[in-house]
Every structure is written in structure tokens, then in C-alpha cells.
TrEMBL record:
Its cofactor is pyridoxal 5'-phosphate. It catalyses: (1S,2R)-1-C-(indol-3-yl)glycerol 3-phosphate + L-serine = D-glyceraldehyde 3-phosphate + L-tryptophan + H2O. It is an enzyme of class 4 (lyase). This is Tryptophan synthase beta chain. Tetramer of two alpha and two beta chains. Pathway: Amino-acid biosynthesis; L-tryptophan biosynthesis; L-tryptophan from chorismate: step 5/5. It comes from Ottowia testudinis. The gene is trpB. GO terms for cellular component: cytoplasm. Residues 76-415 form the Tryptophan synthase beta chain-like PALP domain. One of its GO terms (molecular function) is pyridoxal phosphate binding. Its EC number is 4.2.1.20. InterPro entries: Trp_synth_b-like, Trp_synth_b_CS, Trp_synth_beta/beta-like, TrpB-like_PALP, TrpB-like_PALP_sf. The beta subunit is responsible for the synthesis of L-tryptophan from indole and L-serine. PANTHER family: TRYPTOPHAN SYNTHASE (PTHR48077:SF6), TRYPTOPHAN SYNTHASE-RELATED (PTHR48077).
Length: 454
């Protein structure tokens, strides 16, 4: 009998609990600070933006957090998600390595983002919230929250980074189909947006600016809360359903990863796959190499400073310790919009500081080249963000070929690229530039980091 290509779990095998890596870390996560007092924040400081149930998940150190049944009921639309063995890619590469990928593009929104959008909408609806505001880059998060808001009866307003708003009109159409309102950021709808446009009328936008606009609106209304698609602890917690399923599926395949790869922007899909495996290693199990792949044009893990910084550009958010390029840093308008964030999730940053993961950066042409190789071998066209993970996995497979090692590689294919074909057209036409950030702007942004007492 031939080796299976895909490994499928039954709905009854879907995890009933999320995994919290904080329970297993050798050192606790540095506290979140109030920018005014420089003291650790409390639940009341977050209450204007989040319902208490999510605030509790943000601060808990319990190893397991139960997934509510109404959330699991929606998850059954696409979960458990498949795990694939990339037989054809292995053959194309001529590698002795075994390559597996967890495919999150099977969700209705086409990416891993509904894994957190659904529970966030559920908890907000439970708390009596009527409206949600959020930001989005490429649109995977925005379309996911739009869908979740519709399922739980919430109005959703999405501030989409201007360059992505222009690059990806079909993502915008998807958000509107789900019933959300999509606004190009920076916009004239907020005080901060108007301020940015007054100084830079053609500003391409950034996730930091879009977050500022969404937070500003949410803080003004009692019936409105803010939802974030990455970075925060509770978002990474929700995404661990990816890795928990993958662990069961690797057992089905009678295999275990020697190397685990994920793309990193804010950190949610990467942590979703990696954290359960890292935790397993911390509790005495096998310890695979963990490789985070980021864009060379926005390299927070490889070039950023590990320091306290604001999560947004207007400085409306608390201070978190993370790998950051500086909250005022505006990345170039490269096509992996979901990876254009100035900082990295505090938990991912902390795990890197503990030496539990390594990071590499690639240009967008390198990543699109890998995505095309993958699509022609496996049939799935990856999103530009996921192309970074594909590139990382291919590099590991080619290393195995050079070294004659039959290692097992697992990566997260976090979404499909069906709404990103314009970027593929530009790649084939030779019009996809490897944009570089401005070194002077980076130095200036890093020089403006908040001063936090030791």
C-alpha cells in the first residue's frame, strides 16, 4: 500500500482545549506596562477594549483553556484541518527529507484567521457587545472577523492598510459580502487618521496606524470593543488548535518533525503550529528545531530590538516587551500584507529570547519563487504570507539533500492565494520588486522607543 498523502481527523477528534505555552516556559513573560505609570496593567486597563473573558485568557498561566461548545460548533465547518505529505514537492526537490504541511486554507475565509475570529466574536457577543472594530493588512483577518461578526450578530468595521486596500480589492469585496464595512487606513474617520493624512496625504498606511484608528473608535463607545488578529496572548492561544491537531496527525503518519517552519508577521499562525510542539519539548518530549521565517523588508525578529514598545503608531495601546522595529516604522508596500507589522508577538519574542526558536528573513521574490514551485508540485497556490513558510521549508529540504539527511519537516500553509493573483501576475511579469526598508527610518524609529525604567 502506498504512503498516504493526507491525514484527516474526525470532528469528534477536534481538540476541546487550547494550549497555553506560558504554563511550561522556564521564565515568565515580562509584564505589560501602563505607558503613563510604567506599572503592570490590570484588567480594568484593558476593559474599554476587550470583554473580561478575553482579558482573563490574556493573563492566564493555566496550561489548558476550554474551547466553548458554540465555538467548536462553528469550527466544524472546516476543522479539523488536513495535514498533507508533500510527496510531489519532495520529488521535485530530489530531497531525502519528508515534508508535511498543515493546511489552514480550507476555512471559509481561506486562512487560519477564523481560529481566533470565531471565539473573539463569541465572547464579545456573550458580553453584550454590539460592534467590533479591527485592523487588517492583506485582509485575511478582516474577512475572518467579518464572517465571525455575521455569525454572532455583531456589526464589524475594518480599517485596512491603504496599500493592501488598493492591492487586494477582492478581499475587500469578501469582507463586504460578509456584511462588514471596510475603510482604507489612514482615513478621515478618526482624529489620528486625519492627523496622518494632514502630514502625508498619500501615506500607504501600516498595521500600526490601522490599529490606532480601530482602537480610537472602540474606546469612544460603550457598545463597541476592539478585536486584534495577531500578537496578543489570547490570539496565539486560540491558534494552538493548529498545532494540537497536527500533533495527532503526525502520530497518524508515524512521524515527528525534526524541523518545524512557519511564517511570522505578528506571530499568530507561527505560534499556533509551533507552541504545542515547543511545549511538548519543554515537558520532556522531542525538541524539533523551530524556524520562524519573516520578510526581509519588515524583519522584526532578525533586525528588531527586544524592548518595550507600543503596539500601535498613535501610542494608544499599553507597552509590551517584544522584538520591534519601532512603532513609527512604516514598512514598504510589499505584497505579504499580513507580515507588515513593526513588532512581533510578545510571547514569540520571549520564546526567541529563551533560545527556543531561530529566525531567518527572505525577500518577496525568493518567497514567490518558492510558492510557484509548491503550486506546480502540490496544486495549492499559497498566499504571499504563506510563501515565506514554503521558502523556509524548501531551504530545509535542500539542506537535507546536501547533507544526505532524511529529516522530517513540518510547516504551516496558513492560507491560499486566490485573492492574491495580482501579485503572482506581477511576479511572472518581472514587476515584483524586492523592496527594502529605509535604514535611516528604522534607526529613527528605534531611537524613539519608550524609556522604561530597568
Amino acid at each position: 500500500m502506498s504512503t498516504p498523502t493526507k491525514y484527516l481527523l474526525q470532528e469528534s477528534q477536534m481538540p476541546k482545549f487550547w494550549y497555553n505555552i506560558q504554563a511550561d516556559l522556564p521564565q515568565p513573560l515580562p509584564p505589560v506596562l501602563h505607558p503613563g505609570t510604567m506599572q503592570p496593567i490590570g484588567p480594568d486597563d484593558l476593559a474599554p477594549l476587550f470583554p473580561m473573558s478575553l482579558i482573563e485568557q490574556e493573563v492566564t498561566t493555566e496550561r489548558e483553556v476550554e474551547i466553548p461548545e458554540p465555538v467548536r460548533e462553528v469550527f466544524r465547518l472546516w476543522r479539523p484541518a488536513p495535514l498533507y505529505r508533500a510527496h510531489r514537492l519532495e520529488k521535485v526537490l530530489g530531497t531525502p527529507a519528508k515534508i508535511f504541511y498543515k493546511y489552514e486554507g480550507v476555512s471559509p475565509a481561506g486562512s487560519h484567521k477564523p481560529n481566533s475570529a470565531i471565539p473573539q466574536a463569541f465572547y464579545n457577543a456573550q458580553a453584550g457587545v454590539k460592534r467590533l472594530t479591527t485592523e487588517t493588512g492583506a485582509g485575511q483577518w478582516g474577512s475572518s472577523l467579518a464572517m465571525a461578526g455575521q455569525l454572532f450578530g455583531l456589526d464589524v468595521t475594518i480599517y485596512q492598510v491603504r496599500v493592501s486596500y488598493d492591492q487586494k480589492p477582492y478581499r475587500r469585496a469578501l469582507m463586504e459580502t460578509y456584511g462588514a464595512r471596510c475603510v482604507a487606513s489612514p482615513s478621515n474617520e478618526t482624529e489620528y487618521g486625519r492627523r496622518v493624512l494632514a502630514e502625508h496625504p498619500n501615506h500607504p498606511g501600516s498595521l500600526g496606524i490601522a490599529i490606532s484608528e480601530a482602537v480610537e473608535i472602540a474606546a469612544q463607545r460603550d457598545d463597541t470593543k476592539y478585536a486584534l488578529g495577531s500578537v496578543l496572548n489570547h490570539v496565539l492561544l486560540h491558534q494552538t488548535i493548529i498545532g494540537l491537531e497536527a500533533m495527532e496527525q503526525m502520530h497518524m503518519a508515524d512521524a515527528w518533525p525534526d524541523v518545524l517552519v512557519g511564517c511570522t508577521g505578528g506571530g499568530s499562525n507561527f505560534a499556533g503550529l509551533a507552541f504545542p510542539f515547543i511545549g511538548h519539548g519543554l515537558r520532556g518530549g522531542a525538541k524539533p528545531r523551530i524556524v520562524a521565517v519573516e520578510p526581509a523588508a519588515c524583519p522584526s525578529l532578525t533586525r528588531g530590538k527586544y524592548a518595550y514598545d507600543f503596539g500601535d503608531t498613535a501610542h494608544l495601546t499599553p507597552l509590551t516587551k517584544m522584538h520591534t522595529l519601532g512603532s513609527t516604522f512604516t514598512p514598504p508596500g510589499f505584497h505579504a500584507g499580513g507580515l507588515r507589522y513593526h513588532g512581533m508577538a510578545p510571547l514569540v519574542s520571549h520564546v526567541k529570547e529563551l533560545g527556543l526558536l531561530e529566525a531567518v528573513a527572505y525577500t518577496q521574490n525568493q518567497c514567490f519563487e518558492a510558492g510557484v514551485t509548491f503550486a506546480r508540485a502540490e496544486g495549492i497556490v499559497p498566499a504571499p504570507e504563506a510563501n515565506h513558510a514554503v521558502r523556509g521549508a524548501i531551504e530545509e529540504a535542500l539542506r537535507c539533500k546536501r547533507e544526505g539527511k532524511a529529516e522530517t519537516i513540518l510547516f504551516n500553509l496558513s492560507g491560499h492565494g486566490h485573492f492574491d493573483m495580482g501579485s503572482y501576475q506581477k511576479y511572472f511579469a518581472g514587476e515584483l520588486a524586492d523592496q527594502s526598508y529605509d535604514e535611516k527610518e528604522l534607526a529613527q524609529a528605534l531611537s524613539g522607543l519608550p524609556s522604561v525604567p530597568a
